[in-house]
Amino acid sequence: MAKGLTADDLRTEPEDVLVTKLKEAKEELFNLRFQAATGQLESHGRLRTVKREIARIYTVMRERELGIVTVAEETEAASAEGNDD
Question: What is the pLDDT along the chain (85 residues), one digit of tens a residue?
Fold first, then answer.
């Protein structure tokens, strides 16, 4: 996968960081759509990437809301994976 945001990385972030990243991604998407409408957009693939990043952020936020995955569980899982080496 490309070097963008991954769900695993997002799950370890606190809620306020997720909200900030979501806001930034939405602003970038707006700017990309504006560029596309005016014919100035050079990389149309970036539109798809930003939409997917927004979807990942929403998914992680919804997981937390439903109690499927909590920040503490993900932090513990990440720590356990790092200690296996």
Answer: 346 788 888 999 999 999 999 999 999 999 999 999 999 999 899 999 999 999 999 999 999 999 887 666 656 666 676 665 5
Pairwise CA distance, residues 37 & 10, whole Å: 31
Which tokens hold the place of 5?
């945001």
User: From CA 20, how far away is CA 26, in angstroms rounded?
Assistant: 10
Grouping H, G, I as helix, E, B as strand and the rest as coil, residue 85 is: coil
Q: Torsion over CA of 11, 16, 18 and 19, rounded to 10 degrees?
A: 150
Question: How many angstroms separate the CA atoms of 52 and 60, rounded?
Answer: 12
Nearest to 61 by CA among 17, 3, 30: 17
The token pair at 64 is: 């937390």
For the chain, the C-alpha Rg in angstroms (whole number) is 16
Q: What are the tokens at 79?
A: 């720590």
